[in-house]
Amino acid sequence: MSEVQAAIAQVQFPSKLECLFKPESIRYRVLFGGRGGAKSWGVARALLIKAVQSPLRVLCAREFQTSIKDSVHKLLSDQITAMGLDTFFEVTQAQIRGKNGSEFNFVGLKNNVANVKSYEGVDVCWVEEAQTVSRHSWNVLIPTIRKEKSEIWITFNPELETDETYQRFVANPPANSIVQKINWSDNPWFPDTLKEEKDSLKSRDISAYNTVWEGMCRLTIDGAIFAREMQAAEADGRITKVPYDPVKPVHAVFDLGWADMTAIWFVQFIGMETRLIRYYEVNQTTMTEILAKMQTFGYVYDTLWLPHDAQNKTLASQGRSIEDIVRASGYKTRILERVPVVDSINAARTMFRSCYFDRENCHEGLQCLRHYRYEVDPETNQFSRTPLHDHYSHGADAFRYIGLMINEPRQRRVKPTPQAYGQAHSWMG
């Protein structure tokens, strides 16, 4: 027996993780639950063992990965050392390679469609922290992993029952899948330090304990700003199929970004109803490209509502603003007044009861509203009055602007100025 084989033979796993090795030819292996169950640790070790036994191409994916530090690269490299496999694997800054041709690559899913589609011939795709993966990302990833007998391994700690990953793989698991819940109690090597932390949370907040340690879904995210409003919308049947009415024009309400998301809600006002018929988000995309995309939806537009920063002129955009570019394309525009965040949140709450959301076309936007929450003050451990700036906040910000739009006092209405213009060299044009 070689040194590497001897090292592998010594590796132990919790009994619930035997599903990672058998049966053969399972398309989806899903591990979910609370902290301390050794899900990620176990998957890392299992994949390394498989990569030693035969050439294996592994894609390690997360929804959000701005650098290699956001990936499971360090977890894998630490386990290589812990398992005594340093002589077999070469660990570089961006990749891990085995002597037999095995390789581990790392990718973020969000807005990296072209990147993801370039990974052909993957044997196993490991999706870590999968609770944040969007419907769009799953729809791109799954058909990309198409090699014969290829597998998708999924690990996550559930948050909301309505999250796409939970619905897709736990509530309604696909055929040819193994779904295993694993918690701290299933880990024979659960450390004493974490036991103290677990018991402390249980004594203070049983609801949080059930989510963090027992892997139960929350009814709402802690500190969720629109929790009551979203629960009411679900209970009232206002998250449903909301068709586009071609007789009525569509308003588009923007939150602008470049590295961050540009988020857009598409709204129709019919009687006393505020109908949210579509949500769209994208980053690193010019306004010209966004406007072209909007035309593919087939809507008749009334006004594009823009935040105050749309009036900023930049050298990169040849001295033009976003407002200038939108007007030059023939759209009517309105600039929303800058107000305190708390005022726009209150405005959104006021109009929430009249809102009807299209469940399919607004899916990503609804997730933003469900997860939009206040920051926690690190000194007091209490929620502040400041919303957390994260990947969900952009869609929620655009939604806040709808409340401002409805309560907008009479303003200067800018008429469109149809004129030709050249392609800009920044995200604005």
What's a quick, concise take on this entry?
The chain is of the alpha/beta class. It contains 14 helices and 17 strands. The chain has two domains: 3-204, 3-Layer(aba) Sandwich (Rossmann fold), CATH 3.40.50; 227-406, Nucleotidyltransferase, domain 5.
Describe this structure in words.
With 429 residues, the chain is an alpha/beta fold. It has 2 domains: 3-204, Rossmann fold; 227-406, Nucleotidyltransferase, domain 5. The protein has helices at 3-9, 39-53, 73-82, 113-117, 135-144, 164-171, 192-204, 206-212, 227-235, 287-295, 322-328, 341-352, 363-371, 393-406, and strands at residues 28-32, 57-62, 89-91, 96-98, 103-108, 124-127, 151-156, 177-181, 239-240, 250-255, 262-270, 273-282, 301-306, 332-335, 355-358, 374-376, 383-387. Strands 3-4-5-2-6-7-1-8 form an 8-stranded mixed β-sheet, covered by helices on one side. It has a 7-stranded mixed β-sheet with strand order 9-15-12-11-10-13-14. α2 (39-53) crosses α3 (73-82), α7 (192-204) runs antiparallel to α8 and α13 (363-371) packs across α14 (393-406). It starts with a helix and ends in a 23-residue tail after the last helix. Residues 410-429 have low confidence and may be disordered.
